[in-house]
Amino acid sequence: xxxxxxxxxxxxxxxxxxxxxxxxxxxxxxxxxxxxxxxxxxxxxxxxxxxxxxxxxxxxxxxxxxxxxxxxxxxxxxxxxxxxxxxxxxxxxxxxxxxxxxxxxxxxxxxxxxxxxxxxxxxxxxxxxxxxxxxxxxxxxxxxxxxxxxxxxxxxxxxxxxxxxxxxxxxxx
Length: 173
Hints:
The protein is mainly beta. The protein has a domain at 51-171: Translation factors (Elongation Factor Tu (Ef-tu), domain 3, Beta Barrel). The chain is 0% helix and 39% strand. Strand 6 and strand 7 (95-104) form a beta hairpin.
């Protein structure tokens, strides 16, 4: 079994492999009814390393802040996992953060190095953002809303929501 710091990769035919090289049992495919009006974007339009296209997903345009603006000093790779603030606050006034995973799309300031897409500080790109717990965000954000990406308390990127793909609550964790 993979530990909390191990990465899990999905190989061909849905075989899961932990970062330690041991094979984990593959999950059974989830079967659900397809909504007749649900139109999925073509695979060419999505991030190349997006591992599932049927999950709650935000398409965002994002700009990474430079170090002089309080942002990062090194590039960010696709599969980036910041905490995002969509303008929501807790009852005590604290920011309500949501864990996201950004998968960069080709274009903009994204560049490819050894098969991975990267964005430098100050760069702009479009990304597919998977929200770790979409039930907390569903219905509270809309297209055009602004967001900020944080590493700890430091804001490293900002952007806006371009589109929302919501297949329904069936696949929520």
